[in-house]
Amino acid sequence: MLIQVHPDNPQPRLIKQLAECLRDGGVIIYPTDTIYGLGCDIAKHKAVERICAIKQIDPQKAQLSFICRDLSHLSDYTKSIDTPLYRLLKSYLPGPYTFILPASKQVPKILQSKKHTVGLRIPDNTICHHILDALGNPILSASLPGDMVEEYTDPEVINEKFGDRVDFVVDGGIGSMVPSTIVDCTTDDWQVIRQGLGEIVFE
């Protein structure tokens, strides 16, 4: 089902409906500050499995990331963040970045890669923030299956293609075609492993 959510002033009734759907193990397609993504509550194993089935991937092998409300929320899911790394995160978040960090024990096992790392995001997107506030848990973030094509920027086209495989497609306006920039921070030698929408400069 396609629902239109105002990008700057999301309707509380619709946000509540989306949060309840996620809490009940539902799967949504939603806007971020980059591309539209597949999402579910990270604590709902069956929903994670549904997303992996849509994408035809193994959750243990795929580097699935998830979206947090803020830095304090993000720090629950990674091992201790030292001062230089905290400064880096604070400088660039919220924004179009995914940071690969060592996973803490709070990351559900189904989402822990064999390297025990986790990709964490705090998008600069009002709809995302409202859903996260209402849900209270991070949202799994996965790109739509197949190659990134121009149609994936239009929620109506996304709904035609994937609407029968998810509970809701959130129409928050036209999305970007460029994914987030991925930064590996699992060692002291930080590296950009995918250049996306966000520019980053290490001091």
Q: If you had to describe this structure to a student in words, what would you say it looks like?
A:
- The protein is an alpha/beta fold and 203 residues long.
- It is built from 6 helices and 10 strands, in the order βαββαβααββαβαβββ.
- The protein has helices at 12-23, 45-55, 71-75, 83-92, 126-135, 155-162; strands spanning 2-4, 28-30, 37-39, 65-67, 97-102, 117-121, 139-143, 168-171, 181-184, 191-194.
- Strand 9 and strand 10 form a beta hairpin.
- Helix 1 (12-23) packs across helix 5.
- The chain is globular, with a radius of gyration of 16 Å.
Could you name the key traits of this structure?
203 residues; alpha/beta; DHBP synthase; ten-stranded mixed β-sheet; 6 helices; 28% helix
The total count of helices amounts to 6
CATH superfamily: DHBP synthase
Gap between N and C termini: 46 Å
* Number of individual domains: 1
Query: In CATH's first tier, which class applies?
Result: Alpha Beta
Q: How much β-strand is present in the residues?
A: 15-25%
- Report the structural category: alpha/beta
Shape: globular
CATH topology: DHBP synthase
Number of strands: 10
Helix content: 25-40%
Mean pLDDT: 92
